[in-house]
Structures are given as structure tokens and as C-alpha cells.
Amino acid sequence: MSSLPPAAFPQREHDSHKGNFGRVMLCGGSRGMAGSIALASIAALHTGSGLVSAAIPDRCLETVASFHPCLMTIPVADDAQGRFSVDAITTLAPSLDRFDAWGCGPGMTTGEGSMRIVQHVLQATKLARVFDADSLNCLAKINWGQQPPLNHHHLVLTPHPGELSRLTHVDAKNRDLQIEAAQNLAAHHHVTIVVKGGPSVVVDATRRWTNSTGNPGMATAGSGDVLTGVITSLLGQGLSAWDAARLGVWIHGAAGDKAAARHGQAGMTAWELLAELPQVIAAFDSESM
Ligand SMILES: NC(=O)C1=CN([C@@H]2O[C@H](COP(=O)(O)OP(=O)(O)OC[C@H]3O[C@@H](n4cnc5c(N)ncnc54)[C@H](O)[C@@H]3O)[C@@H](O)[C@H]2O)[C@@H](O)CC1
Ligand SMILES: Nc1ncnc2c1ncn2[C@@H]1O[C@H](COP(=O)(O)OP(=O)(O)O)[C@@H](O)[C@H]1O
Ligand SMILES: [Mg+2]
């Protein structure tokens, strides 16, 4: 392995069953961006989740379901543009507690239906959650950084510099100030934040950790969506927000390094990165360590 992982990967007892490894929900997608939530959901399967469901706008269901037979799909009401409708939250709200972790945001747009979902999931402070992509843009729209703090210890945010800039109003090009602003936001709302980049930096209220895996080949559409699924899966398997974020970023970067070695940095896509996750995770099996 390229460097030591920052936290232990969950081990499997001989008599364990799928219920021991977390039931997770990935919520997102829209017409034209069905691939994003499919990538996140399949990544959660390959990271070891026992059961993975994808909640998606109804007209994306066949597309997302057809990517992987092990994925369960939950059709949710959509609008004329194929985005979550304003009623979507009524389908989703009763099932919040049935899951060990929720990953929310890839491809969901910031339409009114998504805004309602994000605000509802945000209030579920006991639930382990990952907010990525458009769910972060929804938070920016409600100026979340200025809102009164809540205890969000089980929430991980995964912004790229553009999303972080919308959340904190700090220029995407100023890396140092962005990391500082992320740490201030983390302290305010008690969250863990992955400040994406090469390398990604994970912060919470008091700690900073810099990743040692990954490469510029990962600057390709969908690679962040894979990370959402990996971290959601680790949260669902019981890791803390801080450990799930760091181990998730490390695994994701290690898979990116394997994909680059096999296909080249320019030739790899997020699909090849996803396909390398099992090789990275196989190295955690106690027999092969
Ligand atoms: N296959 C799919 O369906 C995909 C859908 N996606 C979805 O597309 C939607 C839009 O997301 P995008 O991230 O493309 O668009 P955004 O508009 O959020 O981000 C792009 C902009 O952010 C800034 N930015 C991003 N990374 C930066 C960096 N490293 N340094 C400096 N600035 C940076 C730049 O200004 C850039 O123009 C989201 O819902 C996302 O989930 C993407 O995840 C890509 C794949
Ligand atoms: N130069 C780089 N070096 C290492 N990792 C990178 C580099 N560029 C991008 N990445 C990683 O790729 C991912 C890109 O995420 P994101 O911008 O959200 O992509 P998308 O939304 O298209 O899925 C992040 O995990 C980021 O850290
Ligand atoms: Mg992204």
C-alpha cells in the first residue's frame, strides 16, 4: 500500500451477515445526471455496505437500476424536468430512520424538491450523513454558515473548491483561506469537512489531516461522486465522521492511484477508479495484511 491508512477498516466475523455492515441510502440524481448517483451507490456496495438503496427521481430509476443488479432503487416523485418534485420529501421522510447512513446530493440539482429534502435530512442530527455536490449548493442557498449552530457530529461535508466558495464566500483559488474557512464552519456546526483537492485535507473543529494518496488523473467527472458513496458506506458501518472521512479519502485516492497505474492519468475515468475499489479494500482482509 502507498501509505498507512488513517483508521482501521471494519473487519468481518465468521458469523456476520449483511445486517452487520450497514444499510445505506444514496439520494440524488436527475434527468441528465443519473450517472452521478449510480457511481455513489455502486461505490457504497464495493466499500462493504450490506444493503444499498438509491432514492432517485422516478424517471431515472431504470437507468440507475441497470448499472448494478445488487442495488435497490426507490422511485421518488419527479417534476417535468426530471428533478425531485416538491412532494418528494413525503416519500423519503418516513424512511430516514430505516438507514444507518445517508449520502445526499450528487446530481440532484438545487430545485425546490431538493431544497426540501436537504433541509429535512439536515435536521436529522442523530443520523450519519454525507452532504456533497448539490446538497452543499442547497446549504449555500439558505446561507447555512450564518445560521445558529446545531450539533452535527455525524455529518460529513465533501465540497470541491467551487462548492466551498459558495458555502463560505472564500475564493476557490485561495487554498489556505479556504481550509481556514472550512475549519471555522466545522467548528460552528460541529461537522467534519473534506476540502477536496490534490491533496484533499480533512478538518473538524480542531484537527487537520492531509491525505497522502491520489493523483491528478482523478480530476475527472464523477470521481467525487464515488467518494460520497465510500464515506457513506463507512459511516453506515459505524465509523465516526472523522474516521469515515479520512479513511474514505485515503481509500478513494488509493483506488485512483491504481486506476492511473493501469489506464494512465488522462485515460482513467471515475468508472475505472470505482473498479479499483475492491483491490484496495481486499488489502484490508486480515489474511492478506
Ligand atoms: N455523471 C454525472 O451525472 C455527473 C454529475 N455531476 C453533477 O453535476 C452537478 C454540478 O457539479 P460540478 O462539480 O460539475 O459543477 P460546479 O459548478 O459545482 O463546479 C464546477 C465549478 O467549480 C469550481 N471548481 C471545481 N473544482 C475546482 C477546483 N479543484 N479548483 C477550483 N475551482 C473548482 C470551478 O469554478 C468550476 O467551474 C452536481 O450535481 C454533480 O453532482 C458531477 O458529479 C459529474 C458527474
Ligand atoms: N489533482 C488532484 N489530485 C488528487 N486528487 C484530485 C485532484 N483533482 C481532483 N481530485 C479528487 O477528485 C475528486 C473530484 O471531486 P469533484 O470535484 O466533486 O468531482 P465530481 O463532482 O465530478 O464527481 C475529489 O475527491 C478530489 O480530491
Ligand atoms: Mg462533486
From TrEMBL:
Biological process per Gene Ontology, one example term: nicotinamide nucleotide metabolic process
Catalytic activity, reaction form: (6S)-NADPHX + ADP = AMP + phosphate + NADPH + H(+); (6S)-NADHX + ADP = AMP + phosphate + NADH + H(+)
Keyword Nucleotide-binding assigned: yes
Enzyme Commission number: 4.2.1.136
Binding site for AMP: K196, G197, G198, P199, S200, G224
Residue numbers binding (6S)-NADPHX: G107, H160, D225
Protein's UniProt keywords contain tRNA processing: no
Signal sequence interval, chain numbering: none
Pfam families with a match to the protein in the record: Carb_kinase
Cofactor: Mg(2+)
GO molecular function, one term: NAD(P)HX epimerase activity
Annotated keywords: ATP-binding, Lyase, NAD, NADP, Nucleotide-binding
Domain YjeF C-terminal: from-to ranges: 1-284
Subunit-level organization: Homotetramer.
Matching HAMAP family: NADHX_dehydratase
Role this protein plays: Catalyzes the dehydration of the S-form of NAD(P)HX at the expense of ADP, which is converted to AMP. Together with NAD(P)HX epimerase, which catalyzes the epimerization of the S- and R-forms, the enzyme allows the repair of both epimers of NAD(P)HX, a damaged form of NAD(P)H that is a result of enzymatic or heat-dependent hydration.
Family: Belongs to the NnrD/CARKD family.
Name by which UniProt lists this protein: ADP-dependent (S)-NAD(P)H-hydrate dehydratase
Protein species of origin: Novipirellula galeiformis
High-level lineage: Bacteria, Pseudomonadati, Planctomycetota, Planctomycetia, Pirellulales
